[in-house]
Amino acid sequence: MKRPLFTILFMIIITVVFVSALAVVNEFSLDRIQKNLAMQKNQSILYAFDILPAAVQEDRLPSTCTTSDIQWDKTEISKRMKNEIHVIRLPVNPQEKQLLKGSFLAIGDSVEIYVRTDEKNQILAYGFPIQGKGLWGTITAFGAVSSDLTRMIGIDFTQQTETPGLGARITEQSFKIYFRNLDLDGFFRQSKLAPIVMVAQKDQTNLEKSTSSVEAVTGATLTCNGVLNMVNTDLRFYLTLLKKNSS
Amino acid sequence: MKMIDVIKDDLWKNNPVTIQVLGICSTLAVTNIFLNTLIMGLGLTFVTAFSALTISLIRNIIPARVRMMVQTLVISSYVVIVDIALKAYVPDISKALGPYVGLIITNCIIMGRMEAFASSNRPGIAFFDGMMSGLGYSWVLLVIAFFRELLGFGTILGVAVLNPLMHGLGVTEGWIQWSFMIMAPGGFFMLALFIWVSNTIIVNKVK
To answer: What are the backbone dihedrals phi and psi of residue A211, each rounded to the nearest 5 degrees, phi first?
Structure first.
């Protein structure tokens, strides 16, 4: 009788000891982790809005560069977020929610939209979260479109669990660059074709010649299909909403 | 057991990956990129060493019936500490590694060393054995990762190596990536080659 009691007591005590130790470690590092997450989120938002540090020239970034490789001054991130990026909420009606069928976005009665403005408070661009299904899990991104809703400004992938070296390459400059100046006219045309398509190879980026296509990652078909579906689905929703509210 | 025997055993003669064939899942999963492999190796070495130390310290009071539960609790606690430390101090690497850090808990090398060594040896030598097992796992993975990244991407630690070399040799197309090396089958073949080579050397030495 004594042996089982000792076993149970031992397990309880050792569990309490280790869980308490973990709680202490977590508590001490929580602040730092949250600041890191906020900083990463802000870096993604700025990248999607095509806001880069003054010393960085995007055409000189290595093809494998990710957003976290771009060297920012932390105070500058906070300053630019505070001065140039504002958050508004737009109401969503049930018909507009229908556009999100198949999307991973969880939208309530309203949705958060990020707005980039200049010094005169003129709207330059809109930004919003995008979410969809990748090969191994959910892919979360932040996308930005021009104020006239005709061009995509940029995209950054904030969370993904795709295969390193294959699907995970969607976070690299060589993939994301094709979303800059992407033609969004397909969303406003009555057509059965997908507004944005993915091709195996492109000779020029959309900055050189704007088209509605982006270049896929070789060997990451399912991840690329996931990205394409989520961009097409969620952009259709946001563009419809923004067009209605643009007045 | 002497420390020199522990070193020889864990790094070569009884290597956890090539001889015991443990930790294969992560060997195949992370070795397509050298930096990820390096961080994974360091993380696993830390977890194995400190788990072994902890288990060894309490080995005489752990009830036999719950020893595996206790070992799992200790191992997972250290893995959580590694995960928190990466998120707090190197968030970019933590993001790059993603779920693989948490999967260190499932690595059979750690449980294997707890059962085979830490639970029946003194803390000092147990810590050293844990560290050597981790390093034994790490060096094998790093060699595999070196070749997989080099042939798969033409880079070492993200720095282009083969493309400039090919251009220098007059090959206008540059280095054509071996996509096979980036995918899981590439990991299988590299690991198999490594096991074959190391076992052949050991067998020849015994002869």
So the answer is: -135, 180
